[in-house]
Structures are given as structure tokens and as C-alpha cells.
Design goal:
UvrC, excinuclease ABC activity, UvrABC system protein C, DNA repair, GIY-YIG_UvrC_Cho, alpha+beta, disordered C terminus
Length: 602
């Protein structure tokens, strides 16, 4: 049931196209949607019964905003921009890059062929994407041997090594005719388009000849080349006689979960398949439209010549925005491919449901148990801090982030303490809390729903003091308490630092234990790295002739005492270190090593 405030806002909604942003109690945008009719769509959230993820979303909404657009196409574009900007919790979110490489033939006077992870509008030829990176690299090496272009850095007045090996046309010392490059590129494009029969036949003959001559190593190399061609250029059997590069999307919906299959059809073959699984808020058709728009908004993506989608997807708007045909096939092999994608989507979802149910109890269910024990509304994001030092030196702090019970390592942060030079838990906590949340405020980033401190009242109250009295933030701060065996015991929370006991066999308790262990591990690992680096730095500083510049150079190039000690005088001199200083470094470090070795035997 909507509050009186929301009911009033609902009456003012316009019956026009646009985007809406749902907000929670912390004014965080938790969902962004688009609609042809804002009044009808937004009201449906509060005037209808819901279940699953939609019900959870509605239970957290305390406010919303709308932005009216002139057309439905504009609402498509605005929705993607808002999702990327705010990263709402309840939206499907895709990473910016595909993670798959392309094979590129550069457009220049002396072109070259190479692997690239970034696609640009530079007139070059791009082939891919290729799911098997290693196979793509080996295929490049094969092409460079059979259809060489330029493999050197350009004119240098003399032939390069690759020219002598037959893998470069000689731009290093001569002017290569454009026609020769064009002829090679023609062969490469044909090869990468799947016309591999002649090349494979030639390799098979050479492999048999090598085996008969007992040149087994060469026969093995030729066998590997055949394999790389098959997994890169001939990934799947021919599924169509139409060579049009196309992407195909279909889905299967059940119990509020959307299973998506994407087929990449290149060179008449199914080259790659992606599968995604999401709990959704909106209709399947609307979520699919948003997914497709985000999919092609990633930087490392080459548009196909055609996109195939099931019935119900807004093909006209997507086609208009992307500038390529978006169609729903009614019959024939394209229709059969759509049905195959739907079948795969269904199988993936059915296979995962049991695992999803278990995961839901372990993650979101655990978050709910913690929230209930602390008498707080259900949150999604927990940030946890811990400090580490050795006898007050090399003080560091570490932050780990858990979203819905899962660690998100992309959000982890490390801090070298700058204002604290001795073991002071309160001062360390104040500095790291001040630095973390001042930055989030300046960058207008979302705050966590809870902050966990790996310590007792001292750390918890120091964090609360900075948040409330310095930064004006109202974020619940919870202390994680350990027993005499250094194991998770209970939580501290509230104005009187009350002990909150969780059932030690509950999922909530296990989650607290995982958070506490993870933040401790992360802090200790970071501290050891800092301490080892400082220890190495101090030992180098004790050597006469080693100043800050030489010390930093050694640290950067070699990184450890053992590597520096085992390096030769020539290796050290190659870094620009004088002969006398290099000898002093060797003698000093070897002496220290002997002393350490002798001590270890005492």
C-alpha cells in the first residue's frame, strides 16, 4: 500500500513517455524504468499485487522521480544512460566490455594483423569476437606465416628478423606495393570468413609427410595449427547458407527469473553463445529490450548486420537506435534457431533453480536475519573495516564490501594510514572512516546500508562519531565481536553498545563469520606486502651509495631482496648503477643473507 505522500505524487503523473526512478529510504535510486505512459506504468507498481523481486522492490520504495521525454525512442536512450550512471540494485546491469578479443587488420599504408580488445571506428577490418583467446592468438601466428603483412615497426633501413623468417613483406627496408598487401588481405578475409578447406588440406599433407619422416615435433605443431583453425574459424558446424553476420536473442521466463540466450552467428556458423540469468522486476519483453540496448552499448562490440528477436520485443525502436535491422522471423531456419535458443534458455533456468534457492537462503536470507536481529530494514550492501600493524609500525586499514551476502572484490579498498604513527584503534578508525565516506560524498556515490567494524566498542564508537558529528551521515555501525579463541561470537549495536546474539547455526551468523574472516584476511595480506616492501627499502637505505633514486629503481625492477642478491654485477649495472655501488650492494646483501642463514640454524 502506497503512503499518503506517494498517493499524492501518483495523481500528478503525466500520461506521456519517459523514465522513472524508484528511491529507497536512503534516497538511493534502486530501479530505473521506461514507459510509453508514465502514469499507467508507475501506478501499476502500487495498485497491483506482486511477488518475487518486484514485491521486494515495491516494499523498499519511499519516493520516485520521473523524466518526461518527447518520444519512446528518447526514453530508451535515457533509461540506458540512467542505469549506467546510478547502477540501480534492481536493474539488469552489464559490464562495459565483452571480455572477448577480435582479430584486426589495420588500415594504414603498411597494414598489420593483430589481436585487439578494443574496437574503434578507424576503418580497420575486425573479425570476431573469439571466445578462445589462446586459439585466436595461435591463428594469428598461423596467418602471419601463410599470409604475411607487416610484422615490424616500419622502415628501419634493413630487413627485420621476421622478413628473414618469411613473416613480414619487408616494409622495414623497402616499399611494398599496395597491390601485394591487398592480395594478402583478400586471402586473410576469405580464410577468417570460413574458407579454410585449401589451407587445411595443405596442413594435413604436410603433417603426414612430417610424421612419415619421423619429424614428430613438426607434425605436432601442424596438428595444433589445425586444431586452432577449427576452434577459431570453424567453431561450429554450418547452420545456414546465409553468410550475413547476425546476433540472435531469446529468453525463457519462470518464477520471476529471466534466462537469456544470445547466439552469435558468423561465417555461416554459430561462433559463440552467451547465457545470462536474472531475477526481474518488469515484463520479460521490457527487460529484454533494456538488456539488448545495454548489450550493444558496451565499448568492445561490433554490431552485426542483423538482429533476430522473439515476438513482443520493441523492434522498431531498437532498430532505429542501433541503425540495423531488428526482425522476428516467422518461419524457416531462423525461426528454428530462435526456438533452439529458447530451449537452451529453459534448460539453463531449470538446472539452476535448485542452486538459486540454496543461494537465496545463504545470501539474501542471511541479510534478512541480520537486519531482523538489529531491528533494521533489509539492506543490500555491507562495508567492513579492519586494521593491521606490527608493534605500531606499518599501519594499514582495509575495506571489504558484501552485496546481498556475496563479496564484491571490485569494491575492496586498501588504506595506508597517514595521520596515525602508533597503535591507536580509535585514531585509525577515525582516519579511514573519514577518508572513505568523505570521498563517497564528494563523488555522490551510494552509501552502504550497514558498516561493520572488526573490533569492539572503541572502533564502533569512533566510526559513529565521525559519521554522525563530522559528516552528518546516518549509517548503522555494527561491531563484530570475537571470543577468546578469536572466533566470531556476536554483534555490538545500538546506543548502549548492546550485544546482539545470533544463532551460531543460522545463515546470518555464517555471513558475519565470512565477512569477519574476509576483512581480516584482506587487511593482513595488504599489511604483509607493505611491511615487506618497507623492510626491503630500509635494508637498501643502509648501503652506502644507494640513494632514493637507486633504491626505487631496484624495488621497481626486481622487487625482492633474493632477486637483487642473486642478480649479477652486470645486471645491476644495466640499471644504470655504477660499478662500485653494484659491488657494495652484492656484498652487503650476501652478508645479510649469511647472517640470516646462520641465525636460522641457531
Amino acid at each position: 500500500m502506497a503512503s499518503e505522500y506517494l498517493e499524492h505524487k501518483l495523481t500528478l503523473l503525466p500520461a506521456e513517455p519517459g523514465c522513472y526512478m524508484m528511491k529507497n529510504v536512503n534516497s538511493q535510486i534502486i530501479y530505473v524504468g521506461k514507459a510509453k505512459n508514465l502514469r499507467s506504468r508507475v501506478r501499476s507498481y502500487f495498485k497491483s499485487a506482486h511477488e518475487g523481486k518486484t514485491a521486494k522492490l515495491v516494499s523498499e520504495i519511499v519516493d520516485f522521480e520521473t523524466i518526461v521525454t518527447s518520444t519512446n525512442k528518447e526514453s530508451f536512450l535515457l533509461e540506458i544512460t540512467l542505469i549506467q550512471k546510478h547502477q540501480p540494485y534492481y536493474n539488469i546491469r552489464l559490464k562495459r566490455g565483452t571480455g572477448y578479443p577480435y582479430i584486426k587488420i589495420t588500415k594504414e599504408r603498411d597494414p598489420e594483423i593483430k589481436i585487439t580488445g578494443e574496437v574503434k571506428k578507424d576503418g580497420a577490418y575486425y573479425f570476431g569476437p573469439y571466445p578462445n583467446v589462446y586459439a585466436a592468438e595461435e591463428t594469428i601466428h598461423f596467418i602471419q606465416k601463410v599470409y604475411p603483412l607487416r610484422r615490424c615497426n616500419g622502415f628501419q633501413g634493413r630487413p627485420c628478423l621476421y622478413y628473414h623468417m618469411g613473416q613480414c613483406l619487408g616494409a622495414c627496408f623497402q616499399t611494398v606495393p599496395t597491390e601485394r598487401y591487398d592480395n594478402q588481405i583478400k586471402h586473410i578475409k576469405s580464410f577468417l570468413s570460413g574458407n579454410t578447406a585449401k589451407v587445411k588440406q595443405k596442413l594435413n599433407v604436410e603433417m603426414k609427410q612430417a610424421a612419415e619422416s619421423m619429424e614428430y615435433e613438426r607434425a605436432g605443431d601442424l596438428r595444433d595449427q589445425l586444431h586452432y583453425i577449427e576452434v577459431t574459424v570453424e567453431k561450429q558446424k554450418i547452420i545456414s547458407n546465409d553468410k550475413t553476420p547476425r546476433d540472435l536473442f531469446n529468453f525463457y521466463l519462470d518464477k520471476g527469473w529471466l534466462s537469456i540466450q544470445v547466439f552469435f552467428i558468423r561465417q555461416t556458423r554459430l561462433m559463440k553463445r552467451e547465457k545470462r540469468l536474472f531475477p526481474i522486476v518488469d515484463t520479460a519483453a521490457e527487460e529484454m529490450s533494456t538488456f539488448i540496448m545495454q548489450f550493444y552499448n558496451r565499448k568492445n562490440n561490433v554490431l552485426p548486420k542483423e538482429i533476430l528477436v522473439p515476438k513482443g520485443i520493441q523492434t522498431e525502436e531498437i532498430s532505429d537506435i542501433l541503425g540495423i535491422p531488428v526482425r522476428t522471423p516467422q518461419r524457416g531456419e531462423k525461426r528454428e534457431l530462435l526456438e533452439l535458443a529458447e530451449k537452451n534458455a529453459r534448460l539453463v533456468l531449470e538446472e539452476k533453480f535448485r542452486l538459486l534457492e540454496l543461494d537465496e537462503r545463504k545470501s539474501v536470507g542471511a541479510m534478512q536475519e541480520i537486519a531482523d536481529a538489529l531491528n533494521l530494514p533489509l539492506g543490500h550492501k555491507i562495508e567492513a573495516f579492519d586494521h593491521s600493524h606490527i608493534q605500531g609500525s606499518d599501519l594499514v586499514s582495509a575495506l571489504v564490501v558484501f552485496v546481498d551476502g556475496h563479496p564484491n572484490k571490485n569494491l575492496y579498498r586498501k588504506y595506508k594510514l597517514e595521520t596515525v604513527d602508533h597503535a591507536d584503534e580509535a585514531a585509525s578508525t577515525r582516519e579511514v572512516i573519514r577518508r572513505r565516506y568523505t570521498r563517497l560524498l564528494k563523488e555522490h556515490e551510494n552509501m552502504p546500508d550497514m558498516i561493520f567494524m572488526d573490533g569492539g566498542e572503541i572502533q564502533m564508537n569512533a566510526a559513529k562519531d565521525v559519521l554522525e558529528n563530522e559528516l552528518g551521515l546516518d549509517i548503522p555501525v555494527v561491531g563484530m565481536v570475537k571470543n577468546n579463541h578469536h572466533k566470531t561470537a556476536d554483534l555490538l549495536f545500538g546506543g548502549n553498545d548492546e550485544h546482539i546474539n545470533l544463532n551460531p547455526k543460522s545463515q546470518g551468523f555464517y555471513l558475519v563469520q565470512r565477512i569477519q574472516d574476509e576483512v581480516h584476511r584482506f587487511a593482513i595480506t595488504f599489511h604483509r606486502k607493505v611491511h615487506n616492501k618497507h623492510s626491503l627499502s630500509s635494508r637498501l637505505d643502509e648501503i652506502a651509495g644507494v640513494g632514493p633514486r637507486t633504491r626505487n629503481k631496484l624495488l621497481k625492477e626486481m622487487g625482492s631482496i633474493s632477486k637483487i642478491a642473486s642478480a649479477s654485477i652486470e645486471d645491476l649495472r644495466a640499471l644504470g648503477i655504477p660499478q662500485n655501488t653494484a659491488q657494495l650492494i652484492k656484498v652487503s646483501l650476501q652478508k645479510n643473507a649469511e647472517i640470516a642463514k646462520g641465525s636460522s640454524h641457531d
